[in-house]
């Protein structure tokens, strides 16, 4: 499996795609982080920090007495982050993590790309202090069950899933609760969310950029008429379509 970004974009397209992804999934992530009690003075590790939106939120929550280490293999979008954020270019498969004894480790949309996911997850658990929380969030193909049969959206999403299966583990999310349990974590919890996108909104734009690029890269996920109908629908307000599911699982290191 590829350990690089599966979709190669120009800088601006990549930045916009990341902005739309954050708009789609950040509210759920923030809801879980809030429930886990992220607050002043905590030491946090944000892995696969992407565009830095969650690192910014963590910085605001932990305040000047806390720490946020933002880690990514590509740090080009992690500029101008406020204190107490520190940015670290890091390949989590082989490079040392920036410290340990964290109160929180959060990782989103990373493990599905890694063949070494078990070893990497072990490293995240080891980086927690006793009582620290690990929150892992990954994609899952369960959302295809929400597709309306016979629509252009179903056609495009199912073809996109077929291509993505060659690049990443699109069923990764459902494995997370067992992976955390097998590592001896306490307080295991899990949630699955399927975002719905209204045409013209950032969630719809995220799908247009992601699936649209797969369409270009493969020479066509579907015929051009189907693609054009799907694209038009996702630009039309008051049109609602289900997006890609995210599974969130969390657990606390014993002690």
Explain the overall architecture.
- GO terms for molecular function: methyltransferase activity.
- It comes from Pseudonocardia dioxanivorans (strain ATCC 55486 / DSM 44775 / JCM 13855 / CB1190).
- It holds the Pfam family Methyltransf_12.
- Helix 1 packs across helix 6 (about 200-215).
- The chain has a domain at about 15-140 and about 170-195 and about 240-255: Vaccinia Virus protein VP39 (Rossmann fold, 3-Layer(aba) Sandwich).
- It has helices at about 10-35, 55-60, 115-125, 150-165, 175-180, 200-215, 225-235; strands at about 45, 65-70, 85-90, 100-110, 130-140, 185-195, 195-200, 240, 245-250.
- The protein is globular, with a radius of gyration of 18 Å.
- The protein has a 7-stranded mixed β-sheet.
- It has 7 helices and 9 strands, in the order αβαβββαβααββααββ.
Q: What is the CATH homologous superfamily assignment of the domain at 13-141 and 169-197 and 242-253?
A: Vaccinia Virus protein VP39
Sheet-strand content, in percent, reads: 15-25%
Structural class by helix and strand composition: alpha/beta
End-to-end Cα distance: 35 Å
Placed side by side, the strands forming the largest sheet appear as 3-2-1-4-5-9-6
> What is the 3D form?
globular
The biggest sheet amounts to:
7 strands, mixed
CATH architecture of the domain at 13-141 and 169-197 and 242-253: 3-Layer(aba) Sandwich
| Helix run count | 7
Helix content: 25-40%
- Oligomeric state of shown chains: single chain
- Report the strand count: 9
């Amino acid at each position: 499996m590829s350990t690089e970004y599966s979709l190669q974009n120009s800088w601006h397209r990549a930045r916009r795609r990341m902005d739309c992804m954050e708009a789609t999934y950040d509210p759920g992530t923030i809801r879980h982080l809030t429930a886990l009690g992220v607050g002043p003075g905590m030491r946090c590790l944000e892995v696969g920090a992407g565009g830095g939106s969650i690192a910014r939120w963590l910085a605001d929550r932990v305040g000047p007495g806390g720490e946020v280490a933002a880690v990514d293999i590509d740090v080009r979008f992690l500029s101008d982050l406020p204190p107490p954020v520190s940015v670290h270019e890091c390949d989590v498969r082989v490079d040392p993590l920036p410290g340990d004894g964290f109160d929180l480790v959060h990782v989103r949309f990373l493990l599905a790309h890694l063949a070494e996911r078990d070893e990497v997850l072990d490293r995240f658990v080891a980086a927690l202090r006793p009582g620290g929380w690990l929150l892992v969030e990954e994609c899952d193909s369960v959302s295809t069950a929400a597709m309306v049969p016979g629509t252009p959206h179903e056609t495009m999403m199912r073809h996109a899933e077929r291509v993505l299966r060659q690049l990443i583990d699109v069923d990764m999310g459902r494995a997370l609760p067992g992976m955390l349990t097998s590592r001896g974590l306490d307080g295991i919890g899990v949630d699955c969310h399927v975002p719905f996108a209204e045409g013209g909104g950032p969630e719809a734009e995220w799908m247009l950029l992601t699936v649209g690029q797969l369409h270009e890269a493969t020479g066509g996920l579907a015929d051009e008429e189907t693609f054009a109908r799907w694209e038009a629908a996702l630009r039309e307000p008051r049109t609602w379509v289900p997006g890609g599911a995210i599974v969130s699982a969390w657990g606390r290191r014993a002690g």
